[in-house]
## 1
Amino acid sequence: MKKLSVILPVYNGEAFITKCIDSLLAQENIDLNTIEILVINDGSTDSSLDMLTNYAKQYSNIFTIIDQENKGAAATRNKAIAAATGEYVTLIDQDDWVDTDYVQTLLSAVEDGVTDVAQVGYKLVNTDKRVIKEVMPINTHFGQLLAIPAWAKIYETNFLKKNAIFFFENNIGEDSLFTLRVWLLSKAYKTVMYAGYNNYFDNQTNVTNSLHKGLSVKVNIIKLLDEMITIRSTEKNQQGLLDYNIIRTAMYYLLSYGKYAKPERFIEVYNELFQWLKSNIPNFKRNKYIWAKPAGEHAIASIGVKLIMSINSLNAVRLFAKVYCRNYR
């Protein structure tokens, strides 16, 4: 058995995968023979598969390639986890790369043999390859839930498989639900103050800035909330955090992408979200974390939740939408 399976989904990644893969091959203080780079080629139509095949020929003891018709990110990641042979797994996106001590740091975090998942931080890198922000992990229970990306973490493979933790197939919230299940089911969750994952962020092509902007009818936010509400806890405080996280998700979506919407569309989605909350969390307005933010919560997110809840209490959504939705084009 390999020590670590690095899961790399690829779809038309010819412009990125050399930097990504080379960063994995450049890892220091690690026997690369203990690593499996598990690549799922998700129906690429460019030269990605040829490039991957060349790597596999040169590093046959490290590379495993699965070639499939295009199925999307969630299905591809799920297939990779099922196929992973490593004792642990970590995920990396095709346009990202890692520092030379990244794998060693991840494996050191789980060397106690009991940790289900360990998270680290990451750096946001722009198109000029400049670091624009370093994001360190938040070492609180709720803060762990806020580490939404599935990457920049290492998971015990059997933990994922025995708990049937999988990626939800939807056009919003794929990582959110995966992380939510990990957060709820893990018995030993570790936070490491280290940022060795480099996340390439292109504001012009990022899906959240193209599909989600303007509260597009194509984005199925209700499908996401329907799945989130099925994840429950028998512990009262933890359930309160789960419910708050749902409220937070709805409010964040409305505020983040609603400023680019028509006022009428903003009001329509606002009404849809509040009707869903009333139907599924009848006492949601009494959630204590709305007004007393949980440890680790971001101040701006907490303010956003309070803002929308206040607008609801004042029945002022039409006035707010008229003022807020001025970025609509």
## 2
Amino acid sequence: MGDKRAAYAQKFPIYEKWEGYMQDQNKNAPASIKSGVQTAGVFWCWMKSERAFVTSATNGMACAIGFAFLILLGATGNIVLSIMSIISVGIVIVSVVAIMVFNGWELGVSESIAVVIMIGLSVDYVVHLAADY
């Protein structure tokens, strides 16, 4: 694994193996040194933050789409236009995420932030077009 920017899904199984190894070592160690810990420098430090970013990105997508639908419904007063607009936002999101997957990217910190920004821009664009229509 030599890449500190590797995705959480790649780093976590390795972390678990090392953590298990350290727990076994601590069980068999003398009482005075049973508090050994493992560290990998920069490899482990962002794992929990990265998982939080990924969770926030997926929750953000769901909240943004739901909230945008309500705003569109209120602004246009037309449920068909609102549904079509939300489908357009969904297509934009799926297209960009598909390109990320085709390029072999995993949803890490940078990608999570980019997805949230992309949602904001696509919703903003679609809301203005729908409201003008």
## 3
Amino acid sequence: MELTKTKITDKIEIINPFSTLQVRETIIIKEGEQIISRSSHRYCIAPGDDYSQCEDMVKAICDLLHTKEVIAAFKESEETS
């Protein structure tokens, strides 16, 4: 039987106050139609982070939420912490 590997983004959460995105990707390995392995990986994208390598859906959400004003406020909060 043939093994297939599929990676899907199955959860995107917006963490306030600065709209940091928490993204969960799941990797599914199948033998034929039977799932033999499933694992998840999470990563975060804070305002100002490079998200150019992310999938289009994640990029679109970052483009919408991570405005210049939000990025500036996030950087200011990091400097005062």
